[in-house]
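Researcher: Next sequence.
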Amino acid sequence: MADVGDGRGPKLAPLELTAAERDELQSLARRPKTAQALAMRARIVLACADGLSNSEASRRLGVSLPTIGKWRKRFVIDRVDGLLDEPRPGAPRKIGDAEIEAVITKTLEEQPSNQDSHWSTRSMAKAVGLNQTAVSRIWRAFGLKPHQVDSWKLSTDPLFIDKVRDIVGLYLDPPDAAMVLAVDEKSQIQALDRTAPVLPMMPAAPGRQTHDYVRHGTTSLFAALDIATGTVIGQTQRKHRHQEFLRFLRTIDRATPPDLDLHLVLDNYATHKTPVIQQWLLKHPRFHLHFTPTYSSWLNLVERWFAELTNRKLRRSTHRSVAELEADMHAWIEAWNADPKPFVWNKSADNILETIAAYCQRINDSGH
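Model: Next structure:
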């Protein structure tokens, strides 16, 4: 079919493709994520080969006329190779695309033949005939980490969907005249002291401490994170039975405005559901408990705050007694509340459920 031109000059010669060229261009154009610039160039050539003028291809593909003209001309001169980026200054590549693709495909789709659970740079280098440095660079470039694995536990809660929608709804659209509190207890926090004094950091040398330590007892921290402000109500207790949880509920009751309803996000720990707790809740109707699904502590935002406490205070602190540990944690909570930082929940319930559904589909497709 003859090209009708773009209305600004002479008609352009027809752009004709061989069957092999069309197949290769269509393969490039279908790329869903990678090499999108190359995919667009392939779509430009295919559009022109289908008889569209430069201006028509520009409107259909949403790119400028000069861009259409550039890649059309490059293809006419150098065919498919003309769509590739021009060589950059410097030493030429020693590893071709086929070798890189072989490493990626082998990493993602095959297991080592020596019964190892995962690839190492050494075993992959031996399998594909490259050196370890080359394999390491390819893995880094494509974000591949065969030595790492994330843990995951699917909830078996029959009310999983309802609970996810309930809790995420509280985070994204909290009720009026109410506070939403993420509540949990961090149990068995150890008062640890090193067997030798900690050496301070010096230029060119990090702080140093012995690997062994002395235990001086444990305590538990009950915490309620205000979703709106990021402030925390904290209380340390030596045990974490239903008696201690009831004591913490009373602390929350005293520490919050009496005219507000309180929506507490909790896990399914047995101490949260005892008859004594239920009776107390009946007498305090402003308390509303929302339980996370089983194996879904990631839905409770106070866990994110516990991570801050661990990383910024507990992991590198030393304490010679439980009382010293408790005082240190209370001081840290007081400092946090002086400049609180709320954690903003962004994912909708639909996003979460779609992600989990996709994960389950992957499990089914893999045959597990």
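Model: The longest helix spans residues 349-366. Strands lie at 178-194, 213-226, 232-237, 261-266, 287-291.
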